[in-house]
Amino acid sequence: MRDAWRVPAAARAMTMAAMDPELEAFIPLFPQVELADPVADREKFTELAAAVPAPDTTGLEIEDRTASGDPPVPLRIYRPHQAQGAVVWLHGGGWVMGGLDSEHPWATRLAETSGAVVISVGYRLAPEHPFPAALDDAYTAVCWAVENAAELGVDPDRIAVGGHSAGGGLAAGVVLRARDERGPSIRFQLLNQPGLDDRQETWSARTFTGTPWMDRAKVAAAWRHYLGGAPATPYAAPARADDLSGLPPAYVATAEFCPNRDEDILYALRMLQAGVPVELHQWAGTFHGSQAILSAEVSQRQIAELGAVLRRGLTP
């Protein structure tokens, strides 16, 4: 099974010894998604999401809503009993895959572990809708959450934004835009393995050419679909932003064998240097998206921590 993923020889000895064995056993079961055919890849992504054990939704009120926009943005609201805050949650999938249904298991778990209202966003996907479509939808969702806080039963000053992978990059872009435009007040940003930099110049981006699920080639394909040939701006690729001051407190989580790892760590460091409170957790032995392997002890800790961190981030 160790041959199921590849890295350059210079890094092989280090990485082969460090993969979490509970995760490594599942690597051959992951579907091959190359991001060359978005329609076909979306079907595989849906199949992968369907294989995740159904969560217990007891104690949650779940409803589908729509945020007014051009076009309207579909939302799915997960409301725990006596929730005090909310998070606008943006799914992963390389900006080309995923949606409200595929994100259901993870949005449910986040609501359960955090006690916060989770507003899952069905943003438009590339390549049919390249940047800034997804960012516009995410920003619309954040504005909607603040404007409808009373109806949601939460404090409008306790609204966070977060996401996984591509969704984490969108969350970081939304936070930058809200700061620059003096838009909605965002209390906290929850960035799980976010995609932040299209340039792929870090060590992890250049080295991880055969890592499980997400590698250099797939990241490059995702950025091509998302940008649609246009130059990247800081709202598309937040690592390009010159000024990270004035942002809300952040939690950044990285996976050891993820091309995004080093750009995420550098972004966290730059926020710290700009005076932004940051909690950074680098999960040893994990790969991009491996928290979907729920039987692994490290995955259980990752999911529990996301909820605990969000709870703390929304606490006055």
From TrEMBL:
GO molecular function: hydrolase activity
Superkingdom: Bacteria
Keyword annotations from UniProtKB, A to Z: Hydrolase
A Pfam family it matches: Abhydrolase_3
Keyword Hydrolase: yes
Alpha/beta hydrolase fold-3 domain segment(s): 87-290
SUPFAM superfamilies according to UniProt: alpha/beta-Hydrolases (SSF53474)
InterPro entries on file: AB_hydrolase_3, AB_hydrolase_fold, GDXG_lipolytic_enzyme
Record keyword Hydrolase present: yes
UniProt xrefs under PANTHER family: AB HYDROLASE SUPERFAMILY PROTEIN C4A8.06C, ALPHA_BETA HYDROLASE FOLD-3 DOMAIN-CONTAINING PROTEIN-RELATED
Protein name according to UniProt: Alpha/beta hydrolase
Source organism (scientific name): Pseudonocardia zijingensis
